[in-house]
Amino acid sequence: MTLSAQSILDFPVPQATHVVTARDAILYALSVGYGTNALDEKALNYVYERDLVTVPTLANIVAHPGPWMKDTGVDWARLVHSEHRLTIHRPVPLDVPLISRSRVLSVIDRGVEIGMFVSFERLIATVDGDEPIATIVQTNACRGDGGCGSAGSAPEPLPKVPDKEPDLEFNIDIPDNAALLYRLNGDLNPLHIDPQAAGKSGFDRPILHGLCSFGYAGYAIVAAIDPSMASGLSAIAARFSAPIFPGETITVQMWRNDAEIRFRGLVASRGATILDNGMARLS
Of 134, 65, 35, 43, whose CA–CA distance to 93 is shortest? Predict the structure, then answer.
């Protein structure tokens, strides 16, 4: 396939179906911070099949179409997730057939030496009744590509966080085995487990899945604002501004305006901002 902006824009992203079980929901919750304290009854509903509540960011792994961009002709080894936006229309239901339909929104060429950004939208709904569950807009940075032109309309940029001291901070210790656990949700990219694959992608060791740190941020926002863990999220978005490695501590800084939250994630030990321009909305 000849790589061009139009060929990527027109690429038929496959549909995917998924029936989410209680086990799926619990595994995801455990992989993004819920249940760290097994005696914390406030978080028990997310990790116990009795009266199970699904985590707001669970939709990110539901009915995923898989590594379809491999088939577009991009340099898969140098592709990284650069931005993610999730709008939650209703909690992910259990034992209900779900379907996702995706389309490429834009290809933004930054030049041969820089690469390009590809944004695509995934709509998740019930198979019977087509009831909307979530809308996801994902942007990938294709660092090994570029020079193929631009096409489509890119999402509006996420605004910067406020230039003032945050209202809240919440620290999250990422376990050393976080990537090994998170990959069981379906993202088996060797970048996150295989040192040789990480090296080919330009990293000195495997990095954490971006959506794992994104899920941890969602957990941190709820835990910091509502210690009862009864609140939910109706939307969350962020830019992945630097890699995070398993075993590090994320400090999530938050600025609150009623139900609207702005946030970013820092790794203070190496002065890195790993999540930036974050936005969330309490449900």
Answer: 134
Closest by alpha carbon to 108, among 70, 136, 146, 53?
A: 146
Instruction: Name the helix (H) or strand (E) containing 126.
Output: strand 116-126
Question: Residue 251: enclosing H or E segment and its boundaries?
Answer: strand 249-257
Summarize the chain as % helix, strand, coil (round to 5). Answer: 25, 35, 40
Q: Are the C-beta atoms of 200 and 77 separated by less than 8 Å?
A: yes
**Arithmetic mean of pLDDT, 152-181:** 96
Checking if the pLDDT of 1 tops 60, the result is no
Return the axis-axis angle of helices 210-225 and 22-31, rounded to nearest 10°. 90
Q: Backbone phi, then psi, for 184, in 5-degree steps? A: -70, -10
pLDDT over 90 (residue 36): no
- Report d(CA 134, CA 129) in Å as an integer: 15
CB 121 within 8 A of CB 137: yes
What distance in Å separates the CA atoms of residue 220 and residue 275, rounded to the nearest whole number? 13
> Where are any strands of DSSP class E within 24-110?
79-88, 97-109
SS3 178: helix
Average pLDDT of the segment spanning 46-58: 94
The distance of Cα 8 from the centroid of its chain, to the nearest Å, equals: 22
Query: In this model, does residue 38 exceed pLDDT 80?
Result: no
- Asked if 244 and 182 touch (Cβ cutoff 8 Å), the reply is no
pLDDT confidence band for 137 (50 / 70 / 90): very high
Q: How far apart are CA 224 and CA 229, in angstroms?
A: 9
